[in-house]
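Worked example 4.2. Below are the chains of a multi-component assembly; read each line carefully before continuing.
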Amino acid sequence: MMPKGYKGVQFKVPKLRAAMSRKVTFNPYGITARVEEGENLLHAALDAGVHIDASCGGEGVCGKCKILLESGEIDTVHSELLSAEDWALGFRQACQSRIRSDVVLRIPALSLLDSRTITRRRSGLVLRPASIDLDDLQRAGLYDPAFQKRFVTLPPLTPSNTISDLSRLKEGLGRQHGLKEITLDFHLVRKLGLVLREKDFQATATLDFSRRRYVHPHLLNVEPGDTTLRHFAFAVDIGTTTVWVQLIDIAKGEIMGHAADYNGQLSYGDDIITRIVFSQKEQGLEKLQHAAASNINQLMHRLLERYRVSIDEISHVTIAANTTMTHLFYGIDPRHLRLPPYTPTVRNVPLARARDMGLETPAHIFINCVSSISSFVGGDIVAGILASGIYKDPKLTLYIDIGTNGEIVIGNKDWLACAACSAGPAFEGGGVQFGMRAMGGAIEDVSINPKTFEPMIITVEMLKPKGICGSGLINLLAALMESNLLDPNGKFSSSSKTSRIRMGENGREYVLARAPDTQIGQDITLSEADIDNLMRAKAAMFAGYVTLLDNVGLTFEDIEQVILAGGFGSYVNIENAIAIGLLPDLPRDRFQFVGNGSLQGATFLAMSRELLSEERRVAAIMTNFDLSETPGFMNNYIAAMFLPHTQMQYFPTVIERMNYRY
Amino acid sequence: MMPKGYKGVQFKVPKLRAAMSRKVTFNPYGITARVEEGENLLHAALDAGVHIDASCGGEGVCGKCKILLESGEIDTVHSELLSAEDWALGFRQACQSRIRSDVVLRIPALSLLDSRTITRRRSGLVLRPASIDLDDLQRAGLYDPAFQKRFVTLPPLTPSNTISDLSRLKEGLGRQHGLKEITLDFHLVRKLGLVLREKDFQATATLDFSRRRYVHPHLLNVEPGDTTLRHFAFAVDIGTTTVWVQLIDIAKGEIMGHAADYNGQLSYGDDIITRIVFSQKEQGLEKLQHAAASNINQLMHRLLERYRVSIDEISHVTIAANTTMTHLFYGIDPRHLRLPPYTPTVRNVPLARARDMGLETPAHIFINCVSSISSFVGGDIVAGILASGIYKDPKLTLYIDIGTNGEIVIGNKDWLACAACSAGPAFEGGGVQFGMRAMGGAIEDVSINPKTFEPMIITVEMLKPKGICGSGLINLLAALMESNLLDPNGKFSSSSKTSRIRMGENGREYVLARAPDTQIGQDITLSEADIDNLMRAKAAMFAGYVTLLDNVGLTFEDIEQVILAGGFGSYVNIENAIAIGLLPDLPRDRFQFVGNGSLQGATFLAMSRELLSEERRVAAIMTNFDLSETPGFMNNYIAAMFLPHTQMQYFPTVIERMNYRY
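Applying the procedure described above to all two chains together yields the following structure tokens:
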């Protein structure tokens, strides 16, 4: 039972980066920040709002990010980019240095910024994805997986007791665990006789206790001896661009780890529409189905190997995905999803045997799929809503998932309304020439020197840059706005005198990294065409919030909490996302970033039958708005095609911030 | 609901052969019998107890069965075996003649019997298998198949009604048929979108309403348009020797027809033990499973073609089989069935998808398997009990299934006790040199001239003889006893002076047909070794009755009804079966012969969810006796190794009959 007053699983609100344990002083500004010991100096500077020119993303090969260590201890490397003389003077490469004590640094003249810059609200709120708080789940009594193992010791065979092996097992489960009227899957029966005898009628049964699907406990598997401590499950998120698989230790109530890869369907089309079209070709649907299954197989096996788990020890797979990905994975013809009136064939996919879907799994493994809402709001969103606990929360919440498409949900424990925004994949790197996923070498943070317009870039894993990921694009747009290079229409100022702005094939572009500093041997740029795509995406999202709020008679002021999910990489800078008009300008402490909400939801469902039983209720109560049919949406969209927005009253803090820079 | 006082489905008691519509007078005996117009004269004579020498089984090639037509009309053939002179005199071949009016015949001297012979109780009761009385089933309100079709017309798609196809279908089933909380099988979903649109959202759903397996109606299939009049199912009996498949028209409540073939597993062993041993070899179980599936596939397709039914129109398959055949068909390791304490892995096999078992069927077809009682009393017996209605009958009934093994059930509506008799396959032709199944050319009836010891044989389909089937063996044994050729120990009298008795490789033997008259080009004989096997089989059965009755404190006098099931071919002569001690000597009107009770039971289960819901209850209340562990059985067995029995008081009418012959 649920403890009284419990409002669903809450994500831990992550702490601000600024709250650290070592003091770093940046001179000549006299700015002091607290950072965690071991933090990289370039990161620390960026977080503190201190610009240091840096071109190679942090790999240490451009040699531009030199700082002078005035006092304190750092771990660093003496590369050939620092002369013996510089080294003796105390110069170090910021990107190669980690803080070991309180330190005092000096930014040399080359990197020095206008003093105004340092007071900008750079590090307002940088959210890292919240981790799932299993203690919370357990304290709330929610850690109660639907799939459980039961060890039984059965009485020996005697001439007077020759009931069937199956009856003997059922009787044992009844006597030792109080389980009655057990149903079971046929495939178990084939091996039952040998399994029971292998450890002399001591065996472990795997049962599914989710009443949503079975009225009685459902027996799925039986193993020789006591295997209750070896019980695992997979949670899977099939995104249009990326497939994630997470391995869960059900016996311990722990997440072991995850693995991800590009969706193999990308070779048949980047977006949903292209894939639906492809599915109608000869063998098209089969190819798409196979690609998804193949992704999951590879990721599952990678995790099994890494954590030394046998596939036989997995009890089930939970899958969350958008509606099209769900249809394609299950091999269900998706054509009606894109034909008016956009009808999915199925929203609640019945249990299916995993190997019937091409997963390389033993017969006892079934797939549970999270219910969808409509053709455009899928099980990934329902999973996120379940994981975030909104459906039990009295607080009015705006849930935003920015992935290949953008979906939004508004509501609380009493009601939920949702819509898909057709935002496109810009914030996943799609439709942007140098856009990429948040992998090693993706530029994820940027600062621009407002005088020299030279950039300071930091990449994922601090490797030489290869492209720009979603969070990098947001941060770059905000930095371009703030440095006055970009006007509110998304066009580069024709008057700016810097070689970083040039005419390219797609209009003007800003050169973020020059060829020699990159992994790809060519300049990494952001063009006006790229910016146009980003603006369309963010406008679709913002128009979605406004339209949905209008339709339920609410305004932004009513929103007490914003939960942000999606493929931003490892963090999102809320300040910058607001600055470009992607997120509403609400008090910053109302924002949370949950990362891959879909994967977390699928994981939670494997851990809690309470949530499992709530899933269809949530899917059922959610009201779906088709924005293209909703009055006002087009006007709201056009109004949002501006940085941050044509109606500046929506963005009071951005006005303040932008005014400040002049 | 069941009508009050209804006692289960009753088989129609078949009429005696003697009750016919044309009068035949056999001179010189002056014996008159009524037979149906069109009846074969050889058959008519045998039934009337009139011996006519006949060696070729009725094919017309031996020319021995000449009779003189004194008056009346027959259809006949003038073969070269009758001279023009004989033909002109009025001689005809009895086996080639069919009665068209009242006729008077004369048996010529060559075929003439001692006048005593004609007064023997030859035609006491010849039972043909009862047919299933569907009118009875329907009157009783039992015709209520668990699988039913429902036609729905769904509302058109509109922009404001974009619920999923599945929800639309479920809503339609709810609105138009009052069905709620429908569960469903995944495989349906893949085709749902196209099927619904094919006839503009008019469709027919196939649902399983058997509450035994699903609490709610379970949706299995959906077809475009209205297909409610096309709904079929298969019933299957997997016997150790023969596999039977019956096609049922569920929409009309009619049996369409059946097909049968030898069990393909015969090539891996004749009996259950040999096959279990074979199953333990490399790929052995797979081969046995495949053989059974292959049998069923061929028979199904034969029926589908014959009756122009598509496999897609089949809703399900019901299988009844003995416990070993059940394990082998499902690919369940059977080794523990033959190891003490003889434990089946499973008695109630869960529903399994037919194609997972190798049946060539679409995904929606599942297999329902009749529950077994023990390792040696299987679902074939439970099916027979259900079909015969014993479980609802107040009359104390003895149910006997004589197939490859013999199983018996005693009881009534209040209790049921069962046992397997290890009778072996003698009455299916196994362990008898010229034994065979009741196929074309099998000797099924025999009379022996008590003076000349020449036989009169009739074969199935009246073809030249190939061997002797079960009913033929019973009739032959009785004829040998009656003609005084065989003594009560089952040995041929050494004093009999006839060339029909001779020494063979396996002791003395009776020559039933000489090589030139057979299809096989060798003499067809019955040896003392064959007789010993037959006696062991009948002794095991009889000892079973006595032991089971003893153990429940009853005697033969208490039995009000005997139901005989099994592979005797198209009929069984009760008088002769009693004469050899295979059946108890009870008033003849207490006997019924139901033919393949297992197949009929499987058929009934497809027609009545009432019976389906009774099935497990019946299986659960039945008490199984392991005869080998039951005191008294061995003594009873030894006492029964005599013709008809060492304790002659069990067989008062046989004493009377045998005494009469001297």
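Take a moment to check your reading of the output against the notes. The mean pLDDT of chain B is 88. The CA atoms of residues 316 and 365 of chain B lie 5 Å apart.
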